[in-house]
Specification:
CATH architecture: Orthogonal Bundle
Radius of gyration: 15 Å
CATH class: Mainly Alpha
CATH topology: Lysozyme
Order of helices and strands: HEEHHHHHEEH
Number of domains: 1
Largest sheet: 2 strands, antiparallel
Structural class: mainly alpha
Shape: globular
Strand content: 5-15%
Length: 145
């Protein structure tokens, strides 16, 4: 039912805003080697990429997270809801989405309840992070719009 949806320019902008671009590999707050716009797969210490390579990695990565959202969500979504969920899943992974109360509420068509659930995902290693709080607020706002 959501099979034709792809992340829009707004969704990509949101991901870029919160991930930021880094041309050199670094350890994110969750202690995972990351490069570009939040790319983690196969990243090596000391690795460097161009902005164009970062953009290509982001577009390729989005396919995975779009497919995760499409597979897990059983109710119709509008574009903003889809974008917010892809942004969330891009940051936290499909496993966290699949086991979340957010997904449970969403699949019960409790859209208002699902929107509130984004806000609970603002910690890394049990510690509240201001950046994650802002990201979850932005995702929740996009989801509700």
């Amino acid at each position: 039912m959501n099979s034709n949806l792809r992340t829009s320019v707004n969704g990509i902008s949101l991901i870029k805003q919160f991930e930021g671009f880094r041309s050199e590999a670094y350890l994110c707050p969750a202690n995972i080697l990351t490069i570009g716009y939040g790319h983690t797969k196969g990243v090596k210490a000391g690795q460097k990429i161009s902005a164009q390579e970062g953009e290509q990695l982001l577009i390729k990565d989005l396919e995975t997270f779009e497919n995760n959202v499409k597979a897990l969500v059983k109710v119709p979504l509008n574009q903003n809801q889809f974008d917010a969920l892809v942004c969330f899943t891009f940051n936290l992974g499909a496993n966290n989405l699949s086991n979340s109360t957010l997904l449970k509420k969403l699949n019960q068509s409790d859209f208002a309840g699902a929107a509130l659930e984004f806000l609970k995902w603002n910690k890394a290693k049990g510690k509240v992070l201001a950046g994650l709080t802002k990201r979850r607020e932005a995702e929740s706002k996009l989801f509700k719009s």
